[in-house]
Amino acid sequence: MSTHARVPVSGSSRPVAESFPHTDVRLSVEQVSYAYSANPTQAPLFTLEATSFQARPGEIVAIVGPNACGKSTLLKLIAGALAPLSGRVLLNGFITHTLPPRERGQRIAMVQQESPLLFPSRAWEFVLQGRHPYARTLRFETQDDVLIARNALAQVGAEHLTDRWMDQISGGEKQRVILARALTQQPLLLLLDEPTLHLDIGAQVDLLETLRKLAAANRYTVVVVTHELNLAGQYADQVALFQKGKCLRVGPPATVFQRELLEQVFQTQLTVELGSSGRPRVTVPSAK
After folding, report:
1. Across the strands, what pairs with 53?
2. What is the distance between the alpha carbons of residues 240 and 16, in angstroms, rounded to a whole number?
3. Cβ distance 191 to 109 under 8 Å?
4. Of the four, 41, 52, 88, 280, which is 20 to 30 A from 273 by CA?
5. Where are the domains of the chain?
6. pLDDT of 57-79, one tens digit each?
């Protein structure tokens, strides 16, 4: 029986993490691998090699690499949507893919690349859907659920969108509302798959600034898949760099973003410079 304690509805409306006396590691990815096959008698079409890293409360981990290198597969393994071929993923000591769906939904929130609207809804109604893991049969939303949903909109700076229709707001605004829906799950672990896709640079920075503040204030552990190397370099505490299903390096952005390594992975000439904050910036050299 799980003992996942939660605070009452309040200004923060976030869960209290289970305490572990010997470590403050929240997420532990331990030698996790996976293989996609057309059928069991054929060689795998794609293999994710054994991958390991850890993350603590309040940390942001960015998973970066070219297309089809295993980033989204790893995210699904962390989420518990896939069972690993080997290894395991632990969230506060619980193996994620063996958690009952309701418990998984209360501990892990996943923001997909695309979140299609199944029916017309206002922003607050869309956000309220995140309370589904707490619902009972034939149970309508409670006043607490409504307060949590409205508080989530406020946390992402989208309270002004409360009564707007989802199909009538901008891409950046929609992504904030989608993030708010994830927050209403009151998760320990927040997973995002290409959250800045289709956003302009201002909206991208705005979203990552919001994630950074949320992680610090609520002690969410955040794992984000992204193609945006400079956003990862600026906002992530750790970066996991992938190429062809293999994790080449995990560590702080300045350690992982080495010019020779990035050029090998992305097959193009790059320049890497450290700013005054010690954060790396990756650019493509101008043609001579």
Report:
1. 29
2. 27
3. yes
4. 52
5. 27-258
6. 999 999 999 999 999 999 999 99
